Task: structure prediction
Amino acid sequence: MRVVRAALSGPRQDPDHRRGGLALLSDLIWAHAEAAHGLEHVRAKAADHGVDLYLFLRAATEAAALDQARALLSGARGPLRAHGYRAAEPHR
Result:
């Protein structure tokens, strides 16, 4: 299993409201995950810039995990933008 972090820039909200937003982002990622993405777990954590998504992926190599994360985030790009978030390039 590999872990890839994807930084999302987006709305800055008060902490009580943000908790619901973190759950929404996790659900959104799961809704767009396909078997080929190898997604096992998602953790969304508030950050100064917006949100960090930690994607736990089944992948043979680091490069494969990054490719899978890119594909997953690409598929979720429209809904992420609809909620005011933009994804930066994922990295280890």
Notes: Strands lie at 2-9, 39-47, 50-57, 86-87.
